[in-house]
Specification:
homodimer
C-alpha cells in the first residue's frame, strides 16, 4: 500500500509523516484474522500523543492536529479548515470481510443469536415472526461484535480470562435497542424495504411494528436495570434519549437547505454514534478497566459511528438499488439532507431549488443526485469519513496489541473500503 | 351511611362486623379535604389484622378473609368462591370530587404540570402540540396525585412533617413526573395500537397529527422518563419502574393475542389488567414510599394498595364502558367489546349466556349485533358481578392503608378508592 498526500500545507505534512515513522509501504496478508496477531509490528508509537501520531499499519497520514472530544465539540473538529485529500492505493491486500473480522468472536455471536430468539420468541409467536423478519434480514450484528471485541481486548488489560454474563447481556441489550429503533424508524419513515426484505410494518401492519418495537425497548430496559450498574444504566438511557432526540431533529429539519454540517454531525451522533459509543464504553466498564480506557473506548465508538454514518450517507448516492437493498436517494427524496448534499449545496444553487421544491417535478430526484455528484459533494464527504476513521484508530492505542485490537482497527477499515 | 350485607355466611359476617366496631352509621362533612383531619376518629383498629378488619368509616363490611399478595396469586384471590354482595346506602354524604380530594396536593400538581410542559415542550414545538393534545385533554393526574399523597403520608411515619411544609424531595417530584410521562406515552401508543380516534372527547394524537408523530411523541416520552429514572440513581426504583414498562408491553401483547377469545378466564383478565393498569399505579405508590425512606413492610403495603386500587379502577372502567353513554365516556360505548377485548362484565356474562358467545365469535359482523351483545351482558348479571369484583379489590386497598398514620393524606388515599367506587353506584 502506498500513500500520496495532496494538501496545500505540503511542507508541514511531509514533516509530520516523516517524524512519525509512518509505514508508507506496509503490506500484509489479510486472509484470516488469526494471522493478524502474528504479523510483525515494527517500531510504532504507543503514546496517546498530543496528536502527532500515525496509524501504524494503515498508511493513513494525518495532516492536521485533531483531538477526540465530546459531542458538543463535534463542530470544532469540523471547523479547522478543509480536510486533506488522501489517496489509498491498494497493494496486495484483499478486501476485509466481516465474517473474517468477526471470526474471533463467532462463538459469542452464536450464543447471542440464540438468546435473542429466546427472549423475543418466548413472549408471543406473532412477535417472533416480526422479530425474525428483522433479525433475520441480513443484520450484521456489528454492535454486539463490537461489545465482544472491546470486552475481550480490555479484558487482557486486567487479566480477565472470560467474558462475564454482564458483557453478554450488554451485547443483547444493545442489539435489542438497535433492532427496536429500526422497526420504529421504518414506521416513522414509512419505509417498505429494509435490506432487500419488506419492513415489519409493511408486512404486519403499523400496530405490530409499534408493539414489537415497544416490547424490545421494554425488555432491554428491564435487562439493563437488572445489570445493576448505575453507570451503564445511565449511559444506555442517554442513548435511548438521544435516539428520540435525533429522530425529532431530523423530522423538524426536512428539506431545510440551511442545515449546517455541525447539525448533521450532531444528528448522526444521536442516531448512530451514540449507541455504538455506549456499547464500547459499556464493554470496557464491565471489564473493570480504568476510566481513562473506558473514555477512549467511548471515543472509539463515537468516531467509528460517525464514520459509519457518513459512509452510509455516501453510499445512498453511489450504490445501486440492488446493492443498497432499497431505492437509491431515499434519504434525499424524504428531505433528509446528509453530508454529500450539505457539501454540494455550498457549491450549487440549482440543487437548493430542486430540494426546496420537494422533488415535485418528475426526474428531479435523479437530477439532484447528479448535481450532488458533479459538485464534489461525494469527495468531500469521503474526506470527512476518513477523518473520523483516523480518530477512531487513534483511540485504540491504549489497547494491547493482539487479534482483538486488530479486529477493532479492521472494523474501521472495513467501513472505509465500502467507499473506495 | 348504613350498610347491609347479604351473604350466605351471614353468621360469620355479623360476628366479624360487630367484633370490629365498624361504624355502620358514620356520617361527616365532605365539603373540604382540610376538614378530614379534624373529623373525630373514634375507636378504630390500627393493627394490620390477619384479615378481620373493617374499613373504619366507609361502612364496607368484609365478609370473607382475603390477603394481599403478588400478581401470581391474583387467581387465588378470585377462586375463593363468589364474592359477597354489598349495598352501600348513601346518607347525607355528598359525592367525592377529585378536586377536593387532590386539594391537599394541589400545589404539588401545579408544579408537576409546569415541569412536564417544560420537559416536553423544550424539545420541539411539534411535540409540544402533540403533548398538549393529550396532557390538556382532561387528564386527572391521578397517578402523580397518588405519588404525592403517599409521599406525604409515609413521610409522617419517619418524622418528616411535610404536611405544613412545602418541600417534598426532588426525587418524589421527579418520580411523579416520570410516572405521568410513562402513563401519557402509553396512552399515545395505545391509541395507535387500538386505532382510536377519540380520547376524553378530543381527537387522539395520531388522528390529529398522524401515526408517525404519535409513535415519535410516545418514544420521546418513554425515553425521557427512562433517562430521568436512571438519574434518580436508586436501583430499587429503577428496577421497579422498568418492570412496569415491560409489563405494559406484555399486557398489550396479551390483549392483542386474545381478541374475541371467548374462552378467556377471569384470572387472565386480572393479569392483563395488572400489566396494563395496576402495575404502574403499584410502582408509583411503592416508589413514593421508598423515597420517603420507610420500612420495606410499609413499602410493600403501599405496593399492594396501588395494585388493588389499580385493579378496582380497571374493573370499574370496564363496567362504565357498558353503563355510560358516549357523552359521558368521551368515546363510543362498548368500544372494548367491539374490538374483541373481553372484560370482566363480558367474562361473567359469558358464563350465563351462550348466545353472547355466538355474537362475539361472529366479531359483530351482523348489524346491531354490538347493541344486542351489550344488552345481553346487562341482562345476564355481568355488570353486577363485575361490581362485586371491583368492591372486593377496593376493600383490599383500604385495608392496605392501615399502616399509615391517621390524617388528611391517608383519608385522601381512602377517598381515592371510594371515588372510584362511586362511579359505579
Amino acid at each position: 500500500m502506498s500513500m500520496t498526500c495532496h494538501n496545500l500545507d505540503f511542507s508541514r505534512t511531509v514533516l509530520d509523516v516523516v517524524a512519525c515513522g509512518c509505514y508508507l509501504n506496509a503490506t500484509f496478508n489479510r486472509s484470516s484474522v488469526r494471522n493478524y496477531a502474528k504479523s510483525s509490528c515494527k517500531s510504532r508509537s504507543r503514546g496517546h500523543g498530543g496528536g502527532i501520531d500515525v496509524c501504524r499499519r494503515r498508511g493513513i497520514a494525518r495532516c492536521r492536529v485533531s483531538s477526540t472530544r465530546t459531542p458538543e465539540t463535534l463542530r470544532n473538529e469540523v471547523a479547522q479548515g478543509p480536510p486533506p485529500v488522501f489517496e489509498l492505493k491498494k497493494g496486495s491486500r484483499s478486501p476485509i470481510s466481516l465474517t473474517n473480522l468477526f471470526e474471533v468472536v463467532a462463538e459469542d455471536l452464536g450464543t447471542l443469536n440464540q438468546n435473542l430468539q429466546n427472549i423475543v420468541g418466548a413472549e408471543n409467536p406473532l412477535l417472533m415472526s416480526a422479530a425474525e423478519q428483522i433479525f433475520g434480514a441480513g443484520g450484521k450484528r456489528m454492535r454486539p461484535a463490537l461489545v465482544f471485541l472491546v470486552s475481550r481486548a480490555t479484558a487482557e488489560l486486567v487479566g480477565l480470562k472470560e467474558l462475564t454474563m454482564k458483557h453478554r447481556r450488554l451485547a443483547e441489550i444493545i442489539e435489542m435497542i438497535h433492532t427496536a429503533s429500526l422497526i420504529h424508524d421504518d414506521v416513522l419513515d414509512d419505509s417498505d424495504i429494509r435490506r432487500g426484505k419488506e419492513t415489519v410494518h409493511q408486512l404486519y401492519g403499523t400496530r405490530v411494528a409499534v408493539l414489537a418495537g415497544d416490547f424490545m425497548f421494554a425488555q432491554s430496559s428491564w435487562y439493563l436495570a437488572n445489570l445493576e450498574n448505575l453507570e451503564v444504566i445511565k449511559l444506555i438511557s442517554q442513548v435511548i434519549k438521544d435516539f428520540a432526540s435525533g429522530e425529532i431533529k431530523q423530522a423538524s429539519s426536512l428539506f431545510d437547505c440551511d442545515v449546517e454540517l455541525e447539525e448533521y454531525l450532531i444528528k448522526s451522533y444521536y442516531k448512530t454514534a451514540s449507541l455504538i459509543a455506549a456499547s464500547t464504553k459499556g464493554a470496557a466498564i464491565f471489564s473493570g478497566v480504568d476510566s481513562d480506557v473506558c473514555q477512549k473506548m467511548y471515543e472509539y465508538g463515537k468516531n467509528l459511528g460517525l464514520s459509519f454514518q457518513v459512509i452510509d450517507d455516501i453510499l445512498d448516492f453511489t450504490q445501486s438499488a440492488e446493492q443498497l437493498g432499497k431505492p437509491a436517494g431515499s434519504d434525499l427524496v424524504k428531505g433528509n439532507l446528509t453530508a454529500p448534499v450539505i457539501f454540494a449545496l455550498e457549491k450549487d444553487p440549482k440543487l437548493r431549488d430542486i430540494i426546496e421544491s420537494e422533488f415535485s417535478e418528475p426526474n428531479s430526484l435523479d437530477e439532484a443526485i447528479g448535481l450532488v455528484k458533479s459538485s464534489g459533494g461525494i469527495e468531500r464527504a469521503q474526506e470527512l469519513a476518513k477523518e473520523k476513521a483516523y480518530l477512531a484508530i487513534q483511540n485504540l492505542q491504549c489497547l494491547p496489541q493482539g487479534a482483538f485490537r486488530l479486529a477493532l482497527e479492521d472494523m474501521v477499515m472495513f467501513n472505509l473500503e465500502r467507499i473506495d
